[in-house]
Amino acid sequence: MGYKPNDFFVGLVDFFAIVLPGALLAFLCLDLAEKHIFGAILPSIRSQAEGWAGFLLAAYLFGQFISLIGATFMDWIYDHTYLRYRRRDGDLRYEKAKKLAGDYADLAGVLKWAGAFVRLRSADAALEIDRFEATSKFFRGLFVVLLVYLISFISSGQWVAVLVVIALLALSFWRFSNQRWKFTELSYLYYIALNAHAETEGKKL
Fold first, then answer.
1. Cα(56)–Cα(132) distance, rounded to whole angstroms?
2. For 59, how many CA atoms within 13 A lie in the half-sphere containing its CB?
3. N or C: which terminal CB in the chain sees fewer CB atoms within 10 Å?
4. What is the 3-state secondary structure of 61-72?
5. How far from 38 is each of 22, 24, 34, 62, CA to CA, in Å?
6. Dihedrals φ, ψ of 42, to 5°?
7. pTM attached to this predicted model
């Protein structure tokens, strides 16, 4: 089986969406874990290698939970704020993609169907939409982590840090929304283009 560039990028999407946000949260919890978990609930860390192994495991686990939380409420907020604003005058790409998808839109959703179709038909197009997806998922996860940092700084009375985190929260949501919009619109555009190309070539997709 030959190597495909998008095989690497799928792993990179997971890295940005799960491992990096999880590592940020694990770093915040580091002192708490050393005081109350390792040596109390779990065995003490006796080497640097064990420390890194524990940190990476925690980063992965935290990242999975962050991704789940982000996909639950961040996507809902995006749909009812940024997406609604961008579609205030309509969304021609979405409507065209929905029409092309037909019954498959009800089966999987327009975005999922369009994304799956593009990934099966064009590796280059898949790489481009995956790049936007990776960035959007990273900032979605970062937003969730920053909320935890915000609570931590408020509880410790670090008000300058609180203001910095609030600014970062606003920027993270903006970047997440912008990249998610580009990811969805590009998915629809490639889906439409691939169908149009096949129609021109006389193929039935």
1. 25
2. 18
3. N
4. HHHHHHHHHHHH
5. 19, 19, 5, 17
6. -105, 160
7. 0.81
